[in-house]
Amino acid sequence: MPGQCVIGLQWGDEAKGKLVDLLTDGKDLVVRYQGGANAGHTVVIGDDVYKLHHIPSGIINEGVLNLITPGVVINPPTILKEINSLAERGIDVSTRMKISQRAHVVMPWHVLEDKMWNELVSGEDNIGTTLRGIGPCYADKIGRSFAIRIGDLIQPDFPERVRKIVAVKKKVLSAASGADETALDAEAIITEYQAYAQQLEPMITDTNRILLDAVDENKDILFEGAQGSLLDIDHGTFPFVTSSNSSGVGISTGSGVPGNWIEKVIGVTKSYATRVGGGPFPTEQDNEKGQHIRDMGNEYGTTTGRPRRCGWFDAVAARYTARLGGATSVALTMLDVLSELESIDVCVAYEIDGERIEHFPANVNDLRNLTPVYESLPGWQVDVTGARSLDDLPLNAVRYARKIETLIGRPIEFISVGPDRAQTIRISQDESLEEYLNAKAV
Length: 442
Ligand code: IMP
Prior knowledge:
It is built from 13 helices and 20 strands. By secondary structure, it is of the alpha/beta class.
């Protein structure tokens, strides 16, 4: 059975980790193909909570091989910390995970650069990155001459490479900061990173070979997107994006698997919208409604702990990203968070200069200046966290889901009503929301 993929349709944090964990059963491989330690994926199984940044969410399932492919940028101390903390909980990552030798390394200078570039840009132009060195690492990857890949850490010329790069980085960083020196010490970095390499070496391999063999052998592969489609470097709300292709278009470039092999794409969206960091957010509710959503959804970043900006569901944006990523179905998450509201707004279109538009604008100024057009739907005011089937949901909650499905133009396959694996309603192909509501109307 060809490949399946889970991608975020918004600005990240859509609860993709839960979906990946749910879908991992029966898969041969789970693949992380872009992003780095900026991601934060939470998997909850009963009382066990796993917070993962680097490691694919399939790691909890025995018998699944997890791959980190060339499109990912890796921070060695962070990934080792994660490996060790999983080991303490009885999960031997070294037997369940392989890392591509082609994946790039986030080096200490990238973190310094991220911090510095962030400080040099103020006000509404500030991207508000996670400060994990992601952008500078991808910039060096594209620039090529000063990049280091995981496979390079175990090459004999690694020390010389670091010395050359550090000499250049020191000049750049000193010039930008106005300081005479930077904290970079080439010899200390060489020793530290060679020690990391030794620990990671058993996992470093050519994942392209593994994946292309798996394709030939028709194995079940699940691809796990990080961040969300609106943060995609090419197709998102540029420049307020991350530095990788975090929409569906990144699956092939990041993993090395041909695009025509991806058969099923599940687009994950919250029942409302959130965003962390700077940038336009048309449906943001910087008011008590937004605060209510933040409180109910515990909307604070898994990676940075920052409060997330909260707002209403934006169907224009979600329809755009579902089409962009070729979503074949949708997972609607965090429906329980809206349970106390009397009414819920949904953005169905935008207005720019008095003109109604239904497409997602490419320009950041248009996104800042537009006015959302809302439709208001009645709430349900019943706790839905115990719902396990459509019959357990109040009709208004099903109507809300159906409205979103219609606006996105893709069938909803999952409704999530809480963080646990069990708090999920799966809608089979012969049980559409439309038919369900029609039957109830009779
Ligand atoms: P960077 O990826 O650290 O460069 O940050 C760029 C933008 O993407 C910032 O607005 C971050 O808050 C956002 N971002 C990066 N990773 C995530 C994520 O996993 N979830 C939500 N937002 C993210």
